[in-house]
C-alpha cells in the first residue's frame, strides 16, 4: 500500500470537489486524530494490527483527497507516548507496522517527490527502537526538499512531552545566547516540534470521541474541531467533505480571535526581544542540532 492512494473519484465526488475548491475557503492545515482502529478490528473480528493496517490504508486515501483539494499540510496522530502502556504484543505489532510502512516509503521516494510530499515525524523519536529511529530519520531527510504537501506524523508524541522538551531546550541555553527576559510564550512556541508549521485550521477526530487526548494542545486554540462517529478505517470521501464544510461554516467565528492572537504574539515578540540576534542565533542552532540528530540516527549502524 502506497502512502498516497490512487483514488478513483466518482463523477459526483468530482463535482463536489470542484465546487468546494471554487466556492469555499480551503483549510491550509488539517489534523487527523485517527481513532477507532481497534474497535473496527473487533467489529470485523480481525486482529488488532490488521485494524491498524487498514487505518493506514485510509490515511493514504485522505492524503490523496487533501492533495487534490489543495490542502498544503496534514498532521496525523499515529502513536501516543501513552500507547507504550498497551500490551507488549500490540506495541511491537504497531512498531512492526511502522517499520513496514516507513520501509515502503523509502522504496517509493520517487513517487513522493513527484507529488512534492515532505515527511516530518513530530515527537520524541529517541523513545523508539533504534532501527525504527533510523527509518524515521532517513524518511525525513530523504524528503526534506519537497514543499507541495507537508505530512507531519505525530509518533511517540504527547503535548505534555512536546512542551517539556521545548522548556528544556530553552533552559539549556538560558545562560548562553538567551536571557530570562527573552523567555516568553513566543519563544516556547518556536521550540515546539511544530516550529515550522502553522497551527491546524481544522482538527478531525473519528470514532465518536470528543476529546483531544493530549494532541497539539498548545496549537489548537484557534482551530475548528470536528468530531464524527465513523471509525477511522471506515471514513469515506463524504465524511471528509463534511469536515471541510464544517470548517467553512465555522471559521468566521474564529477570525476575530485569531487576529487578536496574532497581535498578542507580535507584542510578545517585541517585549521579549524575540527578533534579537541572540534569540535568532539560538533558534538557528536548535534547527541545526535537530537536523544533526537526524543525520546521526540515519547513519547509525544496527548491531
Automatic annotation (TrEMBL):
<dbReference type="InterPro" id="IPR036424">
    <property type="entry name" value="UPP_synth-like_sf"/>
</dbReference>
<keyword id="KW-0472">Membrane</keyword>
<dbReference type="InterPro" id="IPR018520">
    <property type="entry name" value="UPP_synth-like_CS"/>
</dbReference>
<dbReference type="GO" id="GO:0016094">
    <property type="term" value="P:polyprenol biosynthetic process"/>
</dbReference>
<feature type="transmembrane region" description="Helical">
    <location>
        <begin position="224"/>
        <end position="247"/>
    </location>
</feature>
<dbReference type="GO" id="GO:1904423">
    <property type="term" value="C:dehydrodolichyl diphosphate synthase complex"/>
</dbReference>
<dbReference type="GO" id="GO:0045547">
    <property type="term" value="F:ditrans,polycis-polyprenyl diphosphate synthase [(2E,6E)-farnesyl diphosphate specific] activity"/>
</dbReference>
<keyword id="KW-0812">Transmembrane</keyword>
<protein>
    <recommendedName>
        <fullName>Alkyl transferase</fullName>
        <ecNumber>2.5.1.-</ecNumber>
    </recommendedName>
</protein>
<dbReference type="Pfam" id="PF01255">
    <property type="entry name" value="Prenyltransf"/>
</dbReference>
<dbReference type="InterPro" id="IPR001441">
    <property type="entry name" value="UPP_synth-like"/>
</dbReference>
<comment type="similarity">
    <text>Belongs to the UPP synthase family.</text>
</comment>
<keyword id="KW-0808">Transferase</keyword>
<dbReference type="GO" id="GO:0005783">
    <property type="term" value="C:endoplasmic reticulum"/>
</dbReference>
<keyword id="KW-1133">Transmembrane helix</keyword>
<keyword id="KW-0460">Magnesium</keyword>
Amino acid at each position: 500500500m502506497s502512502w498516497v492512494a490512487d483514488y478513483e473519484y466518482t463523477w459526483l465526488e468530482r463535482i463536489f470537489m470542484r465546487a468546494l475548491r471554487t466556492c469555499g475557503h480551503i483549510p491550509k492545515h488539517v489534523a487527523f486524530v485517527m481513532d477507532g482502529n481497534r474497535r473496527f478490528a473487533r467489529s470485523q473480528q480481525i486482529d488488532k494490527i490488521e485494524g491498524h493496517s487498514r487505518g493506514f490504508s485510509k490515511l493514504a486515501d485522505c492524503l490523496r483527497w487533501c492533495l487534490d483539494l489543495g490542502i498544503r499540510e496534514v498532521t496525523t496522530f499515529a502513536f501516543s507516548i501513552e500507547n507504550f502502556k498497551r500490551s507488549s504484543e500490540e506495541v511491537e505489532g504497531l512498531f512492526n507496522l511502522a517499520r513496514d510502512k516507513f520501509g515502503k516509503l523509502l522504496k517509493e521516494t520517487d513517487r513522493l517527490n513527484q507529488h512534492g510530499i515532505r515527511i516530518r515525524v513530530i515527537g520524541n523519536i529517541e523513545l523508539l527502537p533504534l532501527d525504527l529511529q533510523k527509518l524515521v530519520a532517513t524518511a525525513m531527510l530523504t524528503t526534506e526538499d519537497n514543499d507541495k504537501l507537508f505530512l507531519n506524523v505525530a509518533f511517540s508524541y504527547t503535548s505534555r512531552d512536546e512542551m517539556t522538551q521545548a522548556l528544556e531546550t530553552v533552559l539549556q541555553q538560558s545562560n548562553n545566547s538567551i536571557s530570562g527576559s527573552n523567555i516568553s510564550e513566543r519563544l516556547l512556541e518556536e521550540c515546539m516540534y511544530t516550529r515550522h508549521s502553522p497551527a491546524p485550521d481544522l482538527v478531525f477526530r473519528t470514532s465518536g470521541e470528543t476529546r483531544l487526548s493530549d494532541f497539539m494542545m498548545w496549537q489548537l486554540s484557534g482551530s475548528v474541531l470536528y468530531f464524527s462517529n465513523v471509525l477511522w478505517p471506515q471514513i469515506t470521501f463524504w465524511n471528509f467533505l463534511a469536515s471541510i464544510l464544517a470548517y467553512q461554516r465555522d471559521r468566521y467565528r474564529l477570525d476575530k480571535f485569531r487576529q487578536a492572537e496574532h497581535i498578542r504574539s507580535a507584542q510578545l515578540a517585541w517585549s521579549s526581544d524575540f527578533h534579537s540576534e541572540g534569540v535568532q542565533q539560538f533558534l538557528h542552532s536548535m534547527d541545526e542540532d535537530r537536523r544533526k540528530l537526524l543525520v546521526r540516527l540515519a547513519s547509525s549502524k544496527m548491531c
